[in-house]
Description:
This protein is mainly beta.
Amino acid sequence: MKAVNHRNGLTFYAVQPIEEKPVSYVSTPIKAGFPSPAQDYAEEDIDLVHLLGMDKPSVFVVRVDGHSMTDAHLPDKSYLVVDRSLKPMPNDIVVAILNGEFTVKTLVKSTAGWMLYPENAMYDPILVREGDSFQVWGVVAQVVIDRREMRKRY
C-alpha cells in the first residue's frame, strides 16, 4: 500500500498490485469459548487481498485517527477497507465529506434527516443540515486492527 493523501485526521492509501504471496490458512474454526478437544487441522492457502475485497479499483484503505468510533470496534490507528462502489445504506459505517472535512461515522436516517453518528458517547451526533456540502465518499467494508499497536497504548 502507498499513502496517497492525509486529510482531516485520516490517511488514505492506494492498494497497489502485488506479487502473489499465499498465506497459510487453518480452516478449522477456533473456539472463542471453551476449548474443543484436540482436532486435526487442515491447512490451505488464502488470498488476503481477495478476502478483504482489496482487489477492486474502487477500494481504498484509510487509517483512523481518533476515538469517535471505538464502540463500533474501529479504534484509533485501525485500517479501514473502504469500497467506493457500495451504495450507502442507513446504519452503514461510512467515510463522508461534510463541508470539506473527511470523517468516519455511522450513517443514520432520523426524523430530523441524515445524521453522522459517532460510536462513542463522548462525541455528539452531527446532523447534516440543508445547505451543508455532504457526500458519502465510501462504505467501510472491512476493518484491520493491529493488536501490537493496541498494546502500545496501555
